[in-house]
Structures are given as structure tokens and as C-alpha cells.
């Protein structure tokens, strides 16, 4: 997902806070024009979570599952999505 990942991250950096269903829909069902594959929101969410866990090996599962999405993103290499 390397090239695709860059496209998904760009879309998220531009529209990650949007509540627009059309944008969400394109991340779920894909957007061939932008080279965004289906289920990108779940794929990148998995990568963000995995990276957070790698960066915070001493935190328990119970602790990180109680964190907000923003805290998880900020604790991962994807923190620039929120800036």
C-alpha cells in the first residue's frame, strides 16, 4: 500500500476531520481516480494502531483501548495528520 498509502494519507490530511459522508464513502469503497483502494479507512486505522502499540510497548491493552482516536494518532508516526 506504499503509493496508495501516500494517497490515502494525503486525503486524510485534507479531509480527516470532515463529517461529509461522500468523503467517508470514498475511503470505504475506494476512489480509483485518486488511487485510493477500498477499505482504506480500516487499513490505515490498523496501521496507525499497530504503530502506536510499537511506539508504546509498556502500555496495556486496557489502557490503549481507552484512549481517544486523537491520542492514538498523536502517539504514532502519523501524528502529522492532525497538524
Automatic annotation (TrEMBL):
It comes from Psychrobacillus lasiicapitis. Residues 21-73 form the DUF2268 domain. It holds the Pfam family DUF2268. This is DUF2268 domain-containing protein. InterPro entries: DUF2268 (IPR018728). It comes from the Bacteria.
